[in-house]
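ok trying this again, last paste got cut off
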Amino acid sequence: MPLGARVVERKGLVPRISYRWDPETDILTGAVKGVEKGGAGLTGSVELEGSDGSFILLDVAGGAICGVEVVVWPDVRTVQSLQPPADVKEGEVVLPTRRSQPSVAAVEVDTALTIETNAAESVFHVRVGPVRRIDVVRVADGLLVEVDDQNELAGLWLTNVPPFPADEPPA
């Protein structure tokens, strides 16, 4: 099931995202600071669920992504030279493309999810669905969103991700 995504002009400064690992659960979370939250779109969560049990959660306020959680990881493929795209538009992405109904606080999207990372695991590319032509939009410093020609969410780029915390030495 596709998820509508509309690119709109940015109002204000580029927000920042800060990532944090939970070493006990392997969950990667990102919180966006400084995002405009008064737009026309969903306020709640978007659950991207892969057929393999993978699970990514997007926290959304007024359609704007204000948080990302990679909860259950699909198989992650390492691509030595993986880098975010250079051709990036500046803007905001509204999810989904219509205002949420008062009783709807979550949208679940069943789709294929794939993740690639660079050797340092500081860049992650999440593909939502099949490979297709996309535009890449910087929605935060450290978070890029891919939108396809049908105005649907096609992927995410998580950049400047800190290293996973090293295992603690035995006491």
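PB: full thing came through this time. The longest strand covers residues 64-72.
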